[in-house]
Amino acid sequence: MKPGTVDGNLGEVKFTSNPLTLSTALSLGSISIGRNKSNAPASPGVKKTESSVIHSYRKPSQSRGPRHGGIGTWKLSKQFGNRGQQKLQCGRGIAMTSMGDFIVADSGSYGQARVFNQSGDFKYSLDTKQGLKSGQISQPWNVVVSQDGRIFITHLVSHVNVYDQNRTYKYRFPTMSPSNVSSDAQDTVLCGLALDNQGCLLVGECKQKYISKHRLDGSHVSSIAVTIQPGYIAVTSTDKLIVSTGSWYPPIVQVLDPTGNILHTLNPPSGMLSWIPYGICCTADDDIYIANSASNGGGIYCYSISGQYMGCVTKEVDEPAGLALIEDENKLLVVERESVKIFSME
C-alpha cells in the first residue's frame, strides 16, 4: 500500500511488547507514535489523534524460526564423526566451509582438521602441519571460514594457518601483542578465533592474554590486552566481544567492549556445580550460547548480552567444545570431544 504523507508533528516513537503470538507469525508488539506538542495542522491522510497504535506482525525469516524466551527450540537432527578410523579424538572447533561441508579442528593424536559432507561422511583432512617449523606440534584448536572461502586455523603455536577453499595451504601469519603486554614469540599459544563485523580476524593468545586483530591477508590491525585466556571468541552485532577461557583456568566468560574493558561476567546458572565454558556463539539478536563442557551437567546455555541467564538450550551433548550458528539454515553446530552434533530449529 502506498502510505500517506507523514505528519511532521509526529515526533516520538515508542515500542511496547505484545504477548500475542500467532501460529504462523511472530508478534513485533506495537508502535506508539506520539505527536509533538504543536498546533501545526496534520498533513492530509493522517488522522489527528494524540497517539496512533499500529499492530505489526511478520513471518519468521529463514534465519530465525520460532523463538521462545530467546532460546529457541532445537532438535538433534544429525550425529557423525564418532565411528570408524576417522573418529574424532579431541574435537575443539567447528565451522561450515563455503562448499557447505563441516570442518572440525581435532586436537587429538591425529592433529588434523577433518572435513565431513552434509551427510556426515568423512571427506578429507587438512594437513595442519604445513607451514610449521620443524619440531612444532600441530594441535588444531579453532577454525573459521571467511566469505571468500578461506579457512583459518589456530593450532596452539605462534602462527595462524590459512588454506583456500580447495584445501591448499596458502600462508601463515603471527599475532602481535599490544604495547602494554610483554611479548615472547617463543611462548605464544593461539587458541581463540573469530571474524568481526568488518571481516577482520580476531585471534586469542592464551599465554600472554591478548587479542590480535588482522586483515585476511594476515596484516596486523590492532591488539588489546584481556584479563583472561581467550580460548574462544565471539563477536556481537555491536562489536562487543564474548571471551571464554575454554580449558584454561579459571573458567570464566566475559563480555568486553572493543577496547577490552569488561562489561559483564557471565556467571554459571544457579546451582550448577561444574562450569567449564568452552565454545561460544551469538545469534543475530545478540543472545549468547555457551558450551559447558563439564562431564556432569554439561550442555548449551543461553545468556542475554546484558549478562542475564535465559535458560538451557539443550543437554543432549557430551562434553561440548566448539559451537557455530548457521542462522540462514537454522543450524546449531556442536563439536564434542568425539563426535559432531547438528541441531535444527523446530
Question: Keywords for this structure?
Answer:
single chain, 346 residues, mainly beta, Neuraminidase, 4-stranded antiparallel sheet, 0% helix, globular
Structure in words:
With 346 residues, the chain is mainly beta. It has 2 domains: 47 residues, no CATH class; 272 residues, TolB, C-terminal domain (Neuraminidase, 6 Propeller), CATH 2.120.10.30. It is built from no helices and 27 strands. It has a 4-stranded antiparallel β-sheet, with no helix packed on it. A 4-stranded antiparallel β-sheet has the order 5-6-7-8, with no helix packed on it. A 4-stranded antiparallel β-sheet has the order 9-10-11-12, with no helix packed on it. It is globular and about 70 Å long. The protein starts with 11 loop residues before the first strand and ends with a strand.
Summary of the model, kept short:
By secondary structure, the protein is mostly beta strands. The chain has no helices and 27 strands.
